[in-house]
């Protein structure tokens, strides 16, 4: 009988295949077609990985003129219900208690479209319609492929609402190629990553606001699998809230670069002698970097880069 850690690694190894299948599905049509006219705002509801992905989607929508927010499903209140508010509860299992409670407050009072992986779930039954994640069954019970597919399906919603052209099948295939590259070459980067990030005080993850989901999901994977201390921070905010830890901790961070404030953070890292592993680019002052095919494309990055942390988490978990 396989362990949960073994099933988690197997779930990760199926990412390229699942992305290719998602590309085929997106080639067949727009999953968000048929939304009601007159939508003025979008309310995403979710917890954990679902909310992480939604934060990035909401920021992208706001930058394109669409009023959007990613709310904790556990919040007591958010936008009032109404026909102009599209409510998108997100839950891979479709059974998250907080998301069900929040969606229930909007059912029948606002357009309710659930983004789920389990299509016969309680959340799917509550919604007016569903958009399936199409990530397949995650045998480990850890949200990894569903996180990746949530990001893609929310990009599809963005394209639908803004009318901006987006080759989402092509993006899925590029991300599948990048993911396969990291998996196939893990023997060339994994040992160094394990050495650099295996410290007594945990792992800290850093990413720009536009890809904060990568830092949050990376930290969650380290906590959820091997049960190691890990937490996430936005790159610019790091100099205001996390820099203090470099003075009192054996600070070891996984950096997802691309922020205009990378250099500011790295200046403190060099001064304090902290350890940083960069993913997707070579960064001055970092102790090492993990590169992969297509890492110069921000859209590929946001779908792929967290795999480094996921493989690290799986390896630590398997060793327990």
Automatic annotation (TrEMBL):
Keywords in alphabetical order: Isomerase, Repeat
One Pfam family recorded for the sequence: SIS
Keyword Isomerase appears in the UniProt entry: yes
The protein, known as: Fructoselysine-6-P-deglycase FrlB with duplicated sugar isomerase (SIS) domain
Domain of life: Bacteria
GO MF annotation terms: carbohydrate derivative binding; isomerase activity
Biological processes, Gene Ontology terms: carbohydrate derivative metabolic process
Record domain SIS: where: 22-171
């Amino acid at each position: 009988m396989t362990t949960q850690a073994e099933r988690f690694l197997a779930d990760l190894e199926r990412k390229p295949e699942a992305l290719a299948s998602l590309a085929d599905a997106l080639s067949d049509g727009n999953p968000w077609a048929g939304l009601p006219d007159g939508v003025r705002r979008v309310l995403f509801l979710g917890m954990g990985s679902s909310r992480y992905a939604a934060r990035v989607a909401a920021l992208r929508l706001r930058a394109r003129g669409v009023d959007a927010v990613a709310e904790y499903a556990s919040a007591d209140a958010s936008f009032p219900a109404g026909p102009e508010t599209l409510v998108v509860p997100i839950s891979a299992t479709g059974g998250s208690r907080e998301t069900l409670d929040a969606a229930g407050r909007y059912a029948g009072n606002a357009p309710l479209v659930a983004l789920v992986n389990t299509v016969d779930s309680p959340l799917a039954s509550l919604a007016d319609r569903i958009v399936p994640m199409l990530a397949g069954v995650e045998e480990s019970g850890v949200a990894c492929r569903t996180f990746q597919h949530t990001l893609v399906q929310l990009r599809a919603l963005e394209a639908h609402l803004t009318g901006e052209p987006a080759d989402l099948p092509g993006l899925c295939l590029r991300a599948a190629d990048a993911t396969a590259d990291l998996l196939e070459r893990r023997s060339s980067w994994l040992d160094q990553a394990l050495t650099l990030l295996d410290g007594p005080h945990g792992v800290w993850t850093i990413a720009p606001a536009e890809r904060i989901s990568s830092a949050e999901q990376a930290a969650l994977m380290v906590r959820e699998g091997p049960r190691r201390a890990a937490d996430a921070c936005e790159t610019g905010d790091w100099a205001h809230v996390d820099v203090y830890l470099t003075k009192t901790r054996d600070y070891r961070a996984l950096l997802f670069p691309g922020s205009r404030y990378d250099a500011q953070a790295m200046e403190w890292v060099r001064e304090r002698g902290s350890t940083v592993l960069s993913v997707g680019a070579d960064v001055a002052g970092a102790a090492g970097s993990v590169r992969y095919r297509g890492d110069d494309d921000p859209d590929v990055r946001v779908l792929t880069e967290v795999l480094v942390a996921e493989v690290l988490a799986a390896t630590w978990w398997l060793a327990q």
